[in-house]
């Protein structure tokens, strides 16, 4: 009887997770941006890479990006549970435990880094390892909960993929890949601060020190405008530096002008505006902006390869 009681009192949890729940841990929308920008970096890079090696490299970068997302969800499960946009994620919803997410993230991290390092080169593998560490440890565990500049510094993690793609081909880092890094790095603050403006209450409830919560809306709007000006200027650089055409330059200027128009509308928005329409429009356009820039870069690279230029 005692043995039976002991067995009954120690319940064994059977995981209710479906494959889709583990896929959700990878943050597929973020992972798609990682894959796309890494592929652009790979295509722009000088030199040749075997198509199979390129496919394996992209897969490794995708898995590494997904592993970062899983580790982020493991650590931020308490925050995710109180924020409206994250409360239905697999861990706060109770479909996956934090331990399962941690094991999943660590396993994928090791697999991705080793595969990329062995089958391409260790410059790319090392950059991928550093990116995972930076996102999971420097940003998620340290910066996110300690400083309103979290997204500025932490944004570097999302900016590394084109540099990793470049390194997978060349085995090194160059000025061109640094410019690609800077475009994403400078894009991140206005993109996320626009989101933080209309999700202010969520971040406040989760006790995450996003800039609007700490410095106020007015200061946040000023920072958005400043970063937008710098971003629009840096995004044009691939043209004068010679790794993009005047067509890219013209498109970058037009897109940058529209980005600044949205940022200016946010700056002029009344503090405490309940609708936050300008901030929502900037957030939406920022996604189009980055995708369009990198799409043009990719298109020009593909045309150049086909035409043998």
Automatic annotation (TrEMBL):
This is Protoheme IX farnesyltransferase. Belongs to the UbiA prenyltransferase family. Protoheme IX farnesyltransferase subfamily. It is a multi-pass membrane protein. It holds the Pfam family UbiA. GO terms for molecular function: protoheme IX farnesyltransferase activity. Carbon 2 of the heme B porphyrin ring is defined according to the Fischer nomenclature. Keywords: Cell membrane, Heme biosynthesis, Membrane, Transferase, Transmembrane, Transmembrane helix. Its EC number is 2.5.1.141. It catalyses: heme b + (2E,6E)-farnesyl diphosphate + H2O = Fe(II)-heme o + diphosphate. GO terms for biological process: heme O biosynthetic process.
């Amino acid at each position: 009887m005692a043995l039976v009681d002991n067995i009954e009192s120690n319940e064994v949890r059977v995981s209710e997770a479906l494959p889709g729940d583990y896929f959700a841990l990878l943050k597929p929308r973020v992972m798609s941006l990682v894959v796309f920008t890494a592929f652009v970096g790979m295509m722009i890079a000088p030199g040749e890479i075997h198509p199979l090696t390129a496919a394996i490299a992209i897969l490794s970068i995708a898995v590494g990006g997904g592993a970062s997302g899983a580790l982020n969800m493991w650590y931020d499960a308490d925050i995710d549970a109180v924020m409206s946009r994250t409360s239905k994620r697999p861990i706060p919803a109770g479909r996956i435990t934090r331990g399962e997410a941690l094991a999943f993230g660590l396993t994928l991290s090791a697999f991705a880094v080793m595969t990329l390092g062995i089958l391409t080169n260790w410059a790319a593998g090392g950059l991928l390892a550093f990116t995972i560490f930076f996102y999971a440890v420097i940003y998620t565990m340290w910066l996110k909960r300690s400083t309103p500049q979290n997204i500025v510094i932490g944004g570097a993690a999302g900016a590394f993929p084109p540099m990793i793609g470049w390194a997978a081909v060349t085995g090194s880092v160059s000025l061109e890949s640094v410019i690609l890094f800077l475009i994403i790095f400078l894009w991140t603050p206005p993109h996320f601060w626009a989101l933080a403006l209309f999700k202010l209450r969520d971040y406040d409830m989760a006790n995450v020190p996003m800039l609007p919560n700490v410095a106020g809306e007015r200061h946040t709007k000023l920072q958005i405008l400043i970063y937008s000006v710098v971003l629009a200027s840096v995004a044009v650089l691939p043209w004068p530096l010679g790794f993009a055409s005047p067509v890219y330059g013209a498109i970058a200027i037009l897109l940058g002008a529209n980005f600044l128009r949205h940022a200016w509308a946010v700056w002029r928005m009344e503090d405490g505006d309940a609708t936050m329409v300008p901030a929502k429009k900037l957030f939406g356009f920022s996604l189009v902006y980055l995708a369009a820039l990198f799409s043009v870069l990719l298109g020009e690279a593909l045309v150049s390869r086909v035409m043998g230029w």
